[in-house]
Each structure stands twice: as structure tokens, then as C-alpha cells.
């Protein structure tokens, strides 16, 4: 967590969340990718496209990432774009994430714009009230992403859990949707490549 830092969200206000630098806005699972994509530091050597020595390399995440999301259970798909730039305030990154198509069975969501705080260890964030539910996620110094969406609007989905990693110029996120009322699960992925 980022002990007391306030983080700016698209609405422009600065609001701390439980004394932790987090944001409140709109987004989706890929939001996790985006936020995850925005972590910091300067790294020593590199393995698997990621840092060595426990310090996150923010420059490896900066840029425009383009690809698609795919629901492998129901064969639905759509384009995904993530743009990440160093923020105006030290220790922050500006993120614009856009997924097109019927995301989680909902109409095409608008792009998510946010500013995310980071430190040398990565990111550990809670983003409540997004269009696709409450998002909690981490990104560690080895470029691993993990998190979940809970309180997903509409009542048909109980939660979405995801894991993934940045490997060189590719970010891959695998997710599982758990349907409410014992309705089973669906699986999918999001893959974007740095342009």
C-alpha cells in the first residue's frame, strides 16, 4: 500500500482511500492490466523481460499497448488499448484503458482514465465503484499481476479473478468469471503488445 498518498482520478479530485493511495473511477478487468502496467522504479538486470533485484522498472510499462480480449468460453472478443505515461507528479503514472465490445455481457464501456501511484515494489490498489465492480489488484517487482472484481453490477456475475504477467513487449492476463447463483464459470484472456 502507499501509506496516505492521495491519487487523482479522472474527476480531478484528490481523495485518499483508507489512508492508502488509491483511486475511484470507472473501469474493467483490463483496468487491472492498465494499472498493473503502471508500476515504477529503475531496475537492475532483466530476465524474462522483467526486472531483477526487486525494483520495478516503470519505463518497461510506458507506451501504447494494443491487442484484444477474448472470452474463450463464449467465443466473444473485442479490441483493447492501454496507454501509459509518466505522471506529472513523481511516483504516478497516467493511464487510459479502452476495451471495446460486450465486456462481461455489458455494452461497450467507455475508456477508463486514471492516475495511479506506484513505488519501487510495484502497486497494491483498491478501486471501488468502477462500472464493472470493485477492483483490487497488485503488480509485483517481477511484473506479475493478480487481482479480482467483486460487487459486479447487474447481479449475474459474482466475481472475476485474474492473474497475468508482462513479458518483454507483451502483457497477458488470464481471467475467470464466476457467475452468481452457482451458474458456473467462464474463462478468457487479454493480450496486448507494446507498439
Q: What Rg do the Cα atoms give?
A: 16 Å
CATH architecture: Beta Barrel
Task: List low-confidence stretches.
Answer: 1-51
Tell me the span between the first and last alpha carbons.
30 Å
Helix/strand order, N-terminal first: EEHEEEEEEEEEEEE
Instruction: Tell me the CATH superfamily.
Output: Calycin beta-barrel core domain
Binned strand content: over 45%
How much helical structure, as a percent, in the residues? under 10%
Oligomer classification = single chain
**Structural class by SSE content:** mainly beta
Q: Mean of residue pLDDT?
A: 74
Indicate how many domains the architecture comprises: 1
Q: In which order are the strands of the major sheet placed?
A: 8-7-6-5-14-13-12-11-10-9
The general outline is globular
Q: What's the number of extended β-strand segments?
A: 14
Specify the number of helices: 1
CATH T-level topology: Lipocalin
The main sheet comes to:
10 strands, antiparallel
CATH secondary-structure class: Mainly Beta
Question: What features would you describe in this structure?
Answer:
The chain is globular and about 45 Å long. It has a single domain, classed as Lipocalin. The protein is built from one helix and 14 strands. A ten-stranded antiparallel beta sheet has the order 8-7-6-5-14-13-12-11-10-9, covered by helices on one side. The chain has a two-stranded antiparallel sheet with strand order 1-2. 5% of the residues lie in helices and 49% in strands.
